[in-house]
Design brief:
The complex is a heterodimer of chains A (392) and B (546). Chain A is an all-alpha fold and 392 residues long. Helix content of chain A is 65%, strand content 3%. Chain A is elongated. Chain B has 546 residues and is α/β, with parallel strands linked by helices. Chain B is 36% helix and 26% strand. Chain B has 20 helices and 21 strands. In chain B, the strands form four sheets. Chain B has a six-stranded mixed β-sheet with strand order 7-8-9-3-10-11, sandwiched between helices. In chain B, 44% of the residues are buried. Classes of the chains: A mainly alpha (392), B alpha/beta (546).
Chain lengths: 392, 546
């Protein structure tokens, strides 16, 4: 007899092992990892102020002093994620713990972090910061909004053009360092993808799950709702909202989220229609288990894999939406984003390759990375591509 | 013994699975004389299908290798032929039919086209009218009525049995000398199976072809074979004439397989069964139950008709009894079982459990009753949630119903459950995919027992299992019934299992109960015509020696 012995590996662990099984997905994961690192530590990687300095024997950290509320919260959340990852908990408990921690962090940060309202970058080039015993500068000693136009003869510089102010990726028209802006823009790219897809996923799972489980009249009404939302052109809705309510990153996330759930709802519905007749779901019903357990413990984990594939493509889509909007000049004003940088490249009087290549390349790489991960994940859960062949 | 048509000598077939090599067929030798049938029997995974596919060389070339062996067909070694050579043999001299009639025909071609295609492939000079005439002849040969009119029918217009006939017709079209049949009747109902087997025997008599017949069913072997080979783990452990292997088995494995047949199992004494209480009040009382599924058509999904899955069924089940519900596929037996547990909403009628009406109860009021009635399923693959530990599967219902004082206590109860179905208690900490089919069925039973129910619906729980595993499960069920005073509704299509296990038998046909009574009475003196037909169709080891 051929025995089925696979060792005690859970389904999730097996899928993850198979997903990791390839070069493309490693590249994708490495790129996303780099983005996360840049987004979290942006103020320490690219800033005009010293990380640490000692003046007259007093050691101070101007970066920490000028850390914004947002920076502090992102840092805190990152360490909460690391902590939660280390603890041995169930998935649901992990998510709950993270949300709780992030909320507490938000409150604490709002109470205790109070950066100076006005930042004058020229100060950091004044003797107060330069004539010190020693100082440690960030790897890229320019803040994203530190415009060097007045400091040097001309604003626009190609990479490595001058040696006195080294700009690895050149500067834009106002003299701000492109690499610094790229690093700080990671945060927008990541957050819009994750939060918009998160909102869409949340609505999609609930609507799709109810449609699939109850079927019949609930299914019919739900499908009509799905069709209505599928008909809304997201980009034009975004344009309209920007025109009426001004520019806001959060508004963009919410709009992309609440117009993007219909696809996820369809996936969940199909899975649930299939799962509700499965014997183990019937057994759960026959045991009199409560509806929440049947839906979220017995059905959702078995139907979520194809959904996660769709999500990884959805994140890429959301990033593109934001880039498109910023490219059209309707994105966020105060913070740099990749799409907005592309817009600058197009609008400037002469074509400067470094202003287009780097942000364009970053958008391409990010969307590509998410697609690679999505593809690998889809292959991992596809039983037809399984190498196990039942003989393992 | 006349001269042999096919002679397989020391055949080995190794399959490559990732980095591993599986010895699917390991040094087997047999021969098939002209005009006679050789049956390969064995449990799933024993290598019988791979042997057959090796003969016709249908295994994927990169995966399958033959380290040794000869397959002599008319004294020509098939293993040494090139692709063109083997194609000339396939279909025209050796034909094959498969298990699943639903998927082995191409749904977009008419059956006539599919048969003539095979004719054209092997006889390029044949004229259109001649091809059509030969196709109609061969359809008539497999007893398709109005063959000339059915020529242009598509596979979906035929029943399962008719499709298998068309498959046989396709195999016969080129008048092969050897027909390989891989479990050709396993997917069919027993009455249809009987007709197909009879047909195959008749064709063999008429044409004088040889057959390599693969099956797991000893009853079928007894009806079909002159020669039998028993396979185990890729090896041919015993072979010889049908009568000698079936009635004087030499090898321990053959003896074990034959002993595991339900008809050969030692039935526990009736005395023990009668000791159970014989009270007056039925545990479960079904009256005029109807379960209809609407057929919706048109733009507004108007209900034009109903599928009458369960129609006017009345049934009493008394405590401590095992009631077998028998019938062919699609007769409504599974729907009836699920309707009893309120997993399927009945259209009308009444179901009383210990005198309490179940129909119309809300989910909330039904919950305490659910504890008393449980279900175990047919398919070991889908009956357990693949994402949950066995521990969670077993303890969650206990928690919901307030059994056990603490989580630790419930884990202890679950371990005891596993031991009561003869599994190790450490299995609690594993996932379903780590178990074999038989083990999963035991876990499925443990889950049904977790709430200490009085009544369990067993929906074909042994159908997907090998005969030796089936025997173990059946014995386990009888033990559990004794220990726990269980009442069972055992849904099955296997008459052997019914005779072994049940006290009462209920026969269903097209949604209606046609006969019910004591098992011995129903099986030995069937009253209704359908029951008689059903019982006559069952292939049996003892009665069917030709």
């Amino acid at each position: 007899m051929i025995k089925t012995v696979l060792g005690s590996e859970s389904y999730a662990a097996r899928v993850w092992r198979k997903t990791r099984n390839g070069v493309g997905v490693e590249v994708g994961l490495a790129w996303i990892g780099l983005l996360v690192f840049s987004a979290v530590f942006a103020p320490f990687l690219a800033n005009s102020m010293p990380l640490l300095m000692s003046k007259d024997g007093i050691v101070s950290a101007p970066v920490l002093h000028y850390l914004s509320i947002e920076d502090a919260w992102v840092l805190a959340s990152f360490f909460i994620v690391l902590l939660v990852y280390r603890l041995k908990l169930r998935a649901v408990q992990r998510i709950a713990l993270f949300l709780l921690g992030a909320m507490i962090a938000a409150v604490l940060v709002n109470l205790y972090v109070s950066p100076p309202k006005l930042v004058i970058y020229d100060d950091f080039r004044s003797p107060a910061y330069t004539q010190v015993d020693w100082r440690i500068m960030p790897p890229i000693p320019y803040a994203p909004t530190d415009y060097l136009r007045d400091l040097v003869s001309k604003g626009l510089e190609a990479p490595f053009e001058t040696t006195s102010h080294l700009h690895l990726m050149g500067t834009e028209e106002n003299g701000a360092d492109v690499l610094s802006r790229m690093i700080h823009a990671c945060r927008i790219a990541l957050s819009i993808g994750l939060i918009a897809s998160g909102i869409a996923l949340f609505i999609g799972v609930i609507v799709g799950g109810l449609m699939g489980y109850f079927s019949g009249i609930a299914d019919m009404l739900g499908m009509r709702l799905v069709e209505i939302f599928e008909d809304i052109p997201t980009l034009f809705l975004l344009l309209t909202f920007v025109a009426f309510f001004g520019r806001s990153l959060y508004m963009m996330m919410v709009i992309i989220g609440i117009t993007g759930w219909s696809g996820y709802a369809r996936y969940v519905r199909t899975e649930f229609l299939k799962l509700r007749k499965q014997d183990y779901v019937q057994a759960a019903v026959a045991s009199g288990l409560p509806l929440s357990s049947i839906l979220f413990r017995h059905m959702l984990p078995n139907g979520i894999a194809p959904l996660l594939v769709a999500v990884s493509f959805g994140i890429a889509g959301a990033i593109l939406s934001e880039a498109t909007l910023s490219f059209l000049g309707l994105g966020v004003v105060d913070a740099p984003s990749w799409g907005q940088m592309l817009d600058q490249a197009v609008k400037s009087s002469s074509f400067n390759w470094w202003m287009a290549v780097f942000p364009g390349g970053a958008i391409f790489m990010t969307v590509f990375a998410y697609n690679l991960i999505g593809e690998a994940f889809r292959d991992a859960i596809d039983p037809k591509l399984s190498n196990d062949s039942g003989l393992e | 013994m006349s001269q042999s048509l096919l002679e397989v000598r020391n055949l080995r077939t190794y399959l490559q699975s990732g980095a591993r090599q599986v010895k699917a067929v390991d040094d087997i030798s047999f021969s098939i004389p002209k005009g006679e049938t050789f049956c390969l029997v064995g449990e799933s995974g024993s290598g019988k299908s791979v042997s057959a596919l090796s003969v016709i060389r249908l295994l994927p070339q990169g995966i399958a290798t033959h380290p040794s062996g000869e397959i002599l067909f008319n004294h020509q070694d098939l293993l040494t032929l090139d692709d063109a050579g083997i194609r000339a043999v396939r279909g025209s001299q050796i034909a094959m039919i498969f298990q699943e009639p639903m998927t082995s025909l191409n749904p977009v071609l008419s059956i006539g086209e599919q048969i003539t295609e095979a004719l054209y492939a092997h006889n390029p000079d044949i004229s259109d009218s001649e091809a059509e005439q030969r196709t109609i002849n061969v359809l008539e040969q497999v007893q398709i009525t109005h063959a000339s009119r059915r020529f242009h029918d598509y596979p979906h217009q035929l029943s399962g049995g008719q499709r298998q006939r068309v498959m046989i017709a396709m195999a016969l079209a080129c008048e092969p000398q050897l027909l390989i049949a891989d479990e050709p009747t396993t997917a069919l109902d027993v009455t249809v199976q009987a007709e197909i087997l009879k047909l195959m025997r008749k064709i063999q008599e008429d044409t004088g072809m040889s057959m390599l017949f693969i099956t797991h069913d000893f009853g079928v072997v007894a009806q079909m074979a002159q020669w039998v080979g028993v396979m185990q783990e890729g090896k041919l452990v015993e072979s010889g004439s049908c009568a000698s292997v079936l009635h004087q088995p030499q090898h321990a494995y053959t003896q074990q397989l034959l002993a595991a047949l339900p008809e050969n199992l030692v039935k526990p004494s009736l005395q023990a069964a009668l000791e159970l209480e014989s009270p007056a009040a039925p545990l479960l009382s079904i009256r005029d139950l109807q379960v209809f599924f609407p057929i919706n058509k048109g733009l507004f999904r108007r209900t034009v008709d109903y599928v009458r899955a369960v129609d006017q069924v009345s049934l009493d089940i008394f405590p401590g009894q095992i009631v077998a519900l028998v019938g062919e596929s699609g007769c409504g037996k599974t729907t009836l079982g699920r309707a009893v547990l309120q997993l399927e909403a009945p259209t009308s009628g009444s179901i009383k459990f210990r005198g309490q009406e179940l129909i119309g109860l809300s989910a909330w009021t039904l919950r305490p009753l659910r504890q008393k009635m449980q279900i175990a399923f047919q398919d070991p693959q889908s009956s357990l949630n693949p994402r949950l530990l066995i521990e969670t599967t077993l303890t969650e219902p206990m928690k919901v119903h307030g059994m056990g004082d603490s989580h630790e206590h419930r884990i202890e109860l679950a371990s005891q459950l596993l031991e009561s179905v003869q599994l190790h208690r450490d299995f609690l900490w594993r996932y379903p995919h780590e178990f074999s089919g038989g083990q999963r069925q035991r876990i499925g039973l443990a889950r049904a027992l977790a709430l200490n129910p009085e009544f369990i619906v067993c929906d074909e729980i042994t159908s997907a299992l090998d005969v030796s595993v089936q025997a173990e499960i059946l014995q386990l069920l009888l033990n559990l019934r004794q220990q726990r005073k269980l009442t069972l509704l055992f849904i099955t299509h296997n008459i052997g299992v019914v005779e072994y296990l049940s006290d009462q038998t209920v026969v269903m046909y097209q949604g209606k109960i046609v006969e019910q009574g004591d098992t011995a009475q129903v099986c030995q003196q069937p009253q209704h015509a359908y029951t008689q037909k059903l019982l006559a169709a069952v292939p049996r080891l003892k009665t069917s020696m030709r």
